[in-house]
Amino acid sequence: MPATCALCDDLRYRTRAGARWAEAVVCSCQDACKECGGTGRQRFDRPDGRVEFGTCSCRHLAARVQHFNRAHLPATYHSKRVERFDLADATAAEARKAVLEFQARGKLGDRGLMLIGPPGVGKTHLLCGLLRFLVLERGMTARYVDSFQLLEELRQHFELGKGASKLREEVASVPVLGLDELGKTRATGWQIEVLDQIVSRRYDGGLTTFVVTNYRIRPGEGGDPEPQLGGRRRAEVVAPKAAEESLQDRVGQRIFSRLVAMCRPMEIVAPDRRLKDG
Ligand SMILES: Nc1ncnc2c1ncn2[C@@H]1O[C@H](COP(=O)(O)OP(=O)(O)OP(=O)(O)O)[C@@H](O)[C@H]1O
Ligand SMILES: [Mg+2]
Ligand SMILES: [Zn+2]
Ligand SMILES: [Zn+2]
């Protein structure tokens, strides 16, 4: 059946590239809400004959749109959808399946995913598509952050001698965090400290976290062939080639160990789409 509203495909919202981040707006097809006539209050007739009044779904939609605008997804990824991720390869298919599964049934506090892979295989696409869905369709509060930008903003914050950082607090406490580009800079000194605090708080609080990285996981240190990943399958561990740096090398063992407990690692091995499409 064709969509009634060609503007939003009947999603009731539209997204667009804002000046800095992805933005959403409530679609104009929702201007005159048929449910509440614009009052925001809706009558519910219960099966037992009781009548109750509550907030109309159009107001929930407005709140979700606001949350999306605060999630700070990169502008050019505003329209990415997990459903539109093509299956270039078996590992891409597996990753998409896991992301779709979370989209449909994931709950706050559930273990997230760590998408590992070389440039251009669609990791940020999947992450942004997932966050878009969780916020706009499932009403969750989520935040996207690029770890490189995060550390850069925190550095500027320190240098200006400001007190506690709002960004750091937000990233440590948001119910769903999408942390992109982890390991892009090799964390040292204060960067390790800050990342450690953020990750430890999320770990202790049982907050759902998704991580994207170009760096693979090095199995157990000190000649231990079986990585200490709390009973997870060996297949989840993607070993870097001898000369490659691992995620552990980039972020340190403490952060790494917590992240793997919080996010199920999945590797995508596929051709770089930027080279193919460009
Ligand atoms: N399987 C896919 N189906 C549809 N589009 C894809 C797929 N893989 C990648 N793309 C598209 O290719 C472009 C590059 O993908 P993306 O930015 O997600 O890569 P990435 O894995 O995050 O790379 P990097 O590690 O360099 O950040 C995006 O426009 C994305 O939508
Ligand atoms: Mg990316
Ligand atoms: Zn519409
Ligand atoms: Zn309404």
Task: Describe this protein's structure.
With 278 residues, this protein is of the alpha/beta class. It has 2 domains: 8-32 and 53-79, no CATH class; 80-277, 3-Layer(aba) Sandwich (Rossmann fold). Helix content is 37%, strand content 17%. It has a 5-stranded parallel sheet, sandwiched between helices. Helix 2 runs parallel beside helix 3 and helix 5 (166-173) packs across helix 6. The longest helix has 17 residues, at 189-205. The model is unreliable at 221-235 (pLDDT under 50). One zinc ion (ZN) binds at residues 5, 7-8, 27, 29.
TL;DR?
This protein is α/β, with parallel strands linked by helices and 278 residues long.
| Unique bound compounds | adenosine-5'-triphosphate, magnesium ion, zinc ion
Q: Number of DSSP strands? A: 9
Number of helices: 9
Q: What's the structural domain tally?
A: 2
SSE string: EEEEHHEHEHHEHEHHEH
Supply the helix-strand structural class: alpha/beta
Major sheet size, sense and barrel closure: 5 strands, parallel
Mean pLDDT: 89
- Which outline best applies? globular
Measured between the Cα atoms of the first and last residue, the distance is 34 Å
Q: In the CATH scheme, what's the topology name of the largest domain? A: Rossmann fold
Strand portion: 15-25%
Looking at this structure, what is the CATH superfamily of the largest domain? P-loop containing nucleotide triphosphate hydrolases
* Quaternary assembly: single chain
Corresponding CATH architecture of the largest domain: 3-Layer(aba) Sandwich
Contiguous runs where pLDDT drops below 50 for at least 5 residues: 221-235
Strand order of the largest sheet: 6-7-8-5-9
